[in-house]
Known about the structure:
There is one protein chain. By secondary structure, the protein is mainly beta. The protein has one domain (3-66). 6% of the residues lie in helices and 38% in strands. It has one helix at residues 62-66; strands spanning 11-13, 29-40, 43-51, 57-61. It has a four-stranded antiparallel sheet. Strand 3 (43-51) and strand 4 form a beta hairpin. The longest helix has 5 residues, at 62-66. The two termini are 13 Å apart. The model has no long low-confidence stretch (mean pLDDT 83). The structure holds zinc ion. The site of zinc ion (ZN) has 7 residues, from loops.
Amino acid sequence: MGLLVETDVMFLDCPAYLDKQGAVRCGLPAQVEDRYTAESTDGPLECAKVRCPLGHVFNGTIESLTGYKCPTRPVSR
Ligand SMILES: [Zn+2]
């Protein structure tokens, strides 16, 4: 991590549910507006605030925002 990442615009698939059963996800590219680190009992967690073109806004850990799509994604500590 360094100053170089500041110019990168990151996108995540929007994790918003479009139905009450949670079977359909929004999935549009949600822009990462802010990234920060939150302390937890397991150590620092990488968090982000994202906003998709439909106005869905999410604020949470990177893992919670992307985990549904990449369950086998390696966790770096
Ligand atoms: Zn969305």
